[in-house]
Structure formats: C-alpha cells, structure tokens
Amino acid sequence: MANIQLYVASCVLLLSLSWRTSEALPVPAPSPGTGGQCADFYKMLLLNISKALDSIYLSDGIQSEKIEMRNTGETVLACAPTLTQNLGCVTQRNSSFSESECLKNIKKDLLYYHAAIASYLTGPLKNGPEEIRLLSPIVEITKNLTENCFPQLDVENLPSKDAKVWGNESYNNRLEMNKMMKGFHIRAITINRAIGYISSGDHRK
C-alpha cells in the first residue's frame, strides 16, 4: 500500500511539473466551464477538502493512513498533457490531448464524490453538526460544478456498482470517509492542474 501511495504521489508530482509552465501563462480566452466562477469553484473545492481533512471531526479515533481512490474513470490519464519524454509514469502518453475527454472524466469524478458525500451525511454521524458543517460546502460546490460548468457535456449514468455504500456504524463510515477524502484530495489537485492546463490553451497550439 505504501508503494502504491508513493507511486500515485509521484505521478501527481510529475503532472504538476508538466503543467507548471502553462499555469504561468495568461488566460485570454478560457474554454467554456474552466474560467471565471467555475475556476473559483475548483479552487474552493480543494480548499474545503483540505479543511475537512485537517479537522479532528473526521479523524477522531482514526489512525489509518490509507487512501481510497475512485477506481472508475481515467481522469489522470485523460487529463495528462501530451508529452514526448518518458518519465516512467503510467500517465505519460504520446497521443493527442482531448479536452472533451478530460472534462468528461472530471465530471464523472465530481458526480461520484457528490453522491457519496451527500449519502454519507444521511447516515449515522458521531459528530453530526460538525461533520455536516465541514462536508456540506463540498456537496454544494460539486453540485454547482456538475450543473453549471460542463456546458453541452453529457456523461452516461454511473453504474450502480460504482456507488459508495455506507454502513450503520458511524466509526466504520468515518474510517471509509477519511480514506475517500484523502483520495478525493489527490484527485482535486489533479483536476485543478488539468483545468489550468485547459485554460492556458497549450493543448490547442
């Protein structure tokens, strides 16, 4: 598990280095759904996930360092910039970058996490008011993003087998939520980098 976590972190770092140049460029005409208020929503999403992970209310009594990543979808691969140099990461490819494919996978991720967190809040909660206070903004942000920031972009319904299922014990649910939010944090970093890359217009050059 430690090797997998290190591998995922390495891939995110490589993508960060690949996108750093594009983030520094001016953004004269961002693609629909990636600029303005939508760009702010993506930043707010990452900030709120970080805030939730830093809170004691989701980690109370939990010592696990495990990370749960959403298995369905290929966001990291679909949103990786076109590279010609092999950096030893599975996300590096030589095929052309597809903006629509990247955004489609981002939307799938957001729909998944929105449904999972909203469902969690309807179950048994040890620190009810505080957990609701921490997670409700994330539910609202993911809703705003999926409804307002993907113009004319439809995705097929997520298979029911991909839906997150919560149990009846608050501790086990918090343990699963803690692992899921760590994975969502990594995915949110990837999403923000991808949106910055798309906004830069580098893939259209």
Automatic annotation (TrEMBL):
<dbReference type="GO" id="GO:0005615">
    <property type="term" value="C:extracellular space"/>
</dbReference>
<keyword id="KW-0964">Secreted</keyword>
<dbReference type="Pfam" id="PF03039">
    <property type="entry name" value="IL12"/>
</dbReference>
<dbReference type="InterPro" id="IPR004281">
    <property type="entry name" value="IL-12_alpha"/>
</dbReference>
<protein>
    <recommendedName>
        <fullName>Interleukin-12 subunit alpha</fullName>
    </recommendedName>
</protein>
<comment type="similarity">
    <text>Belongs to the IL-6 superfamily.</text>
</comment>
<dbReference type="GO" id="GO:0006955">
    <property type="term" value="P:immune response"/>
</dbReference>
<dbReference type="InterPro" id="IPR009079">
    <property type="entry name" value="4_helix_cytokine-like_core"/>
</dbReference>
<keyword id="KW-1015">Disulfide bond</keyword>
<dbReference type="GO" id="GO:0005143">
    <property type="term" value="F:interleukin-12 receptor binding"/>
</dbReference>
<feature type="signal peptide">
    <location>
        <begin position="1"/>
        <end position="24"/>
    </location>
</feature>
<dbReference type="GO" id="GO:0005125">
    <property type="term" value="F:cytokine activity"/>
</dbReference>
<keyword id="KW-0339">Growth factor</keyword>
<keyword id="KW-0732">Signal</keyword>
<keyword id="KW-0202">Cytokine</keyword>
<dbReference type="GO" id="GO:0008083">
    <property type="term" value="F:growth factor activity"/>
</dbReference>
<comment type="subunit">
    <text>Heterodimer with IL12B; disulfide-linked. The heterodimer is known as interleukin IL-12.</text>
</comment>
